[in-house]
C-alpha cells in the first residue's frame, strides 16, 4: 500500500512543531533520536507493518487504536502492552480495552529491533511509529514522529477503566477527557476522525441504533439487523460504511447526515457553534483534516507519564525488565 500524496507536505509542515515535544523526564523528543543508535528503526517498523497490513488490513486501525488507548492512560508509555503480574492487573483486561488487538505486531517489531540494536528502542516509540504507518498505509497522512519515549514499569487497569472515553459519552464529557490531557476541541475533533476506519461491536452502538432519536432512520434500521436489542454483542459494523478501510474525511460527512455509529461520534455534531463548524470544515476539506489529524497525533504522542513514573526501555513489550 502506498502513502498518500499529502504525506510529504504534512511531514514538512510538522518539522517545527516536532521540536517542541518533550519526554517524561523533560528531555526533548526528536524525530532523529535513533539516527546514531538504531538508524534502521523506521524501516523495520514500516516493513513489519506493511507485511501484516497486506495480509490482514484490519491490523492498521487496530494498531492505531492501541496508540490512543496507551496515551490516554498514564501518558504514552507502552503500559497498554504489559501483561498482568502478581503486582498489577493488565490494562488489556480493562473493559474499554477488551477488544484491543495488534499486540503481536508490536512484538514482532520489537524482536527485530532487539536483534539490530539491543535495549535501545522503547515499545512506546514503536507504537507511535507503527500508528503513523498504519494511517499512511490506509491512504492517510504521514508525519515526523518525535521519538525518545521510555516504557513504564507498571500497568494501570483502574486508570484505563476510569479514564478512557466511553462510546456513550456526550460532548461535555469528551471535551473534558481531552482537555485533561492537554488536547483542545480541535484536537479532539480531528483525532475522532480515526473512526473513518475500523469496526465496532454491537455492544458499543446498541443504544445508538435502538434508542437515539438523533439518527438517520434508514441507517439505524440497517445497523439493527446485526445488533438486536439484547445479546449478540459480536455483531460488527464499520464506523464509516462508505470507505471503511480508507483513511479519508467520510466520517465527518456521516456525522452531518446523522449516520455516526457511536453516540460519542454523533455527539461531535449538532450542538451548534464552533464545534459544528469544525465537523463541517473537515467534511468539505480533506486536506485540512489530514493536516490537523497529523498535528493532533503529535500532540497526543507528547502526553507524558506523571513526573516520577519509573521508566525503562523494555526488552520485551509485554513484560518489564528484571
Automatic annotation (TrEMBL):
Q: Where does heme b bind?
A: 195
Q: Where is the Plant heme peroxidase family profile domain?
A: 28-321
> Key word Ligase present in the record?
no
Q: Per UniProt, where does substrate bind?
A: 165
Quote the subcellular location field of this record: Secreted
The EC class name is oxidoreductase
By what name is this protein known?
A: Peroxidase
Disulfide-bonded cysteine pairs: these are 38-117, 71-76, 123-317, 202-227
Q: Which family does it belong to?
A: Belongs to the peroxidase family. Classical plant (class III) peroxidase subfamily. Belongs to the peroxidase family. Ascorbate peroxidase subfamily.
Amino acid at each position: 500500500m502506498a502513502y498518500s500524496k499529502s504525506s510529504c507536505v504534512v511531514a514538512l509542515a510538522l518539522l517545527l512543531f516536532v521540536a517542541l515535544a518533550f519526554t517524561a523526564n523533560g528531555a526533548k523528543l526528536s524525530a532523529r533520536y535513533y539516527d546514531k543508535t538504531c538508524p534502521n528503526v523506521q524501516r523495520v517498523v514500516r516493513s513489519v507493518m506493511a507485511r501484516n497490513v497486506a495480509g490482514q488490513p484490519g491490523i492498521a486501525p487496530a494498531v492505531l487504536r492501541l496508540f490512543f488507548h496507551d496515551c490516554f492512560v498514564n501518558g504514552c508509555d507502552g503500559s497498554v502492552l504489559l501483561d498482568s503480574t502478581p503486582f498489577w492487573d493488565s490494562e488489556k483486561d480493562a473493559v474499554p480495552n477488551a477488544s484491543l488487538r495488534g499486540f503481536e505486531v508490536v512484538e514482532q517489531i520489537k524482536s527485530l529491533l532487539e536483534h539490530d540494536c539491543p535495549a535501545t528502542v522503547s515499545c512506546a516509540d514503536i507504537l507511535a511509529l507503527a500508528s503513523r504507518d498504519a494511517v499512511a498505509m490506509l491512504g492517510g497522512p504521514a508525519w515526523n514522529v518525535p521519538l525518545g519515549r521510555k516504557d513504564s514499569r507498571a500497568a494501570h487497569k483502574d486508570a484505563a477503566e476510569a479514564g478512557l472515553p466511553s462510546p456513550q459519552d456526550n460532548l461535555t464529557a469528551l471535551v473534558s477527557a481531552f482537555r485533561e490531557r492537554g488536547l483542545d476541541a480541535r484536537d479532539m475533533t480531528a483525532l475522532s476522525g480515526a473512526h473513518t476506519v475500523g469496526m465496532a461491536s454491537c455492544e458499543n452502538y446498541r443504544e445508538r441504533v435502538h434508542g437515539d432519536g438523533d439518527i438517520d432512520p434508514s441507517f439505524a434500521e440497517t445497523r439493527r439487523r446485526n445488533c438486536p436489542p439484547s445479546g449478540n454483542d459480536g455483531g460488527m459494523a464499520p464506523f464509516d460504511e462508505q470507505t471503511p478501510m480508507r483513511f479519508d474525511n467520510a466520517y465527518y460527512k456521516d456525522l452531518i447526515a446523522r449516520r455516526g455509529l457511536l453516540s460519542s461520534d454523533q455527539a461531535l455534531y449538532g450542538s451548534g457553534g464552533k464545534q459544528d463548524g469544525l465537523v463541517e470544515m473537515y467534511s468539505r476539506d480533506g486536506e485540512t483534516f489530514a493536516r490537523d489529524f497529523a498535528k493532533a497525533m503529535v500532540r497526543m504522542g507528547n502526553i507524558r507519564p506523571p513526573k516520577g513514573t519509573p521508566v525503562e526501555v523494555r526488552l520485551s513489550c509485554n513484560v518489564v525488565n528484571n
